[in-house]
Inverse folding.
């Protein structure tokens, strides 16, 4: 029983730690992207845009992030690929509207808080008001406002699935169940 209680406790604390580490990584990445965006907002030349997209692609490829720059109307202005539809999985893209050549987040709750806030980072966990519901996994979404001349004009959206945390939790739980069963078996053999 002691092993089981230890396993459950360790599982709980380890999963909390892993989630916090994931949140920190997503926030740090988003802040770097925000700084680059704010630095170049007044003069987003073609070369700057290519560099900026390569930065987004770097974070996407190395961290399994999906990163967008979203305006106050919920339009995805920039993604890692010039063709935004190639940056977003089909099951997510199918839930978005398309207006004036931009893909638009379908629910205003997905972008209103960050645009009307006081510059604070917004964290969302789950299915992001239904946008990620067809992926069958919860996501972490971090929204970081981008300011220009003292006004919030857009936000960095960094999205990442959270199954790695659940996989690690399940592996740890399996390990403790197996070790507990082995302990019970050895105890039973010794008791005979």
């Amino acid at each position: 029983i002691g092993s089981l209680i230890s396993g459950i406790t360790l599982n709980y604390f380890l999963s909390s730690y892993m989630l916090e580490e994931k949140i920190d990584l997503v926030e740090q990445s988003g802040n770097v992207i925000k700084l680059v965006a704010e630095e170049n907002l007044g003069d987003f030349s073609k070369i700057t845009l290519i560099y900026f997209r390569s930065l987004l692609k770097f974070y996407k490829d190395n961290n399994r992030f999906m990163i967008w720059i979203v305006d106050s109307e919920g339009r995805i202005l920039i993604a890692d690929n010039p063709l935004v539809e190639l940056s977003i999985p089909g099951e997510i893209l199918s839930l978005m509207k398309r207006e004036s050549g931009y893909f638009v987040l379908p629910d205003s709750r997905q972008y209103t808080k960050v645009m009307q806030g006081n510059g604070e980072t917004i964290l969302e966990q789950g299915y992001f008001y239904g946008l990620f519901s067809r992926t069958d996994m919860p996501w972490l979404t971090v929204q970081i406002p981008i300011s220009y001349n003292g006004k919030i004009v857009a936000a960095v959206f960094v999205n990442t699935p959270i199954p790695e945390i659940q996989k690690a939790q399940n592996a740890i739980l399996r390990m403790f169940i197996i070790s507990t069963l082995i302990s019970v078996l050895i105890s039973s053999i010794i008791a005979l």
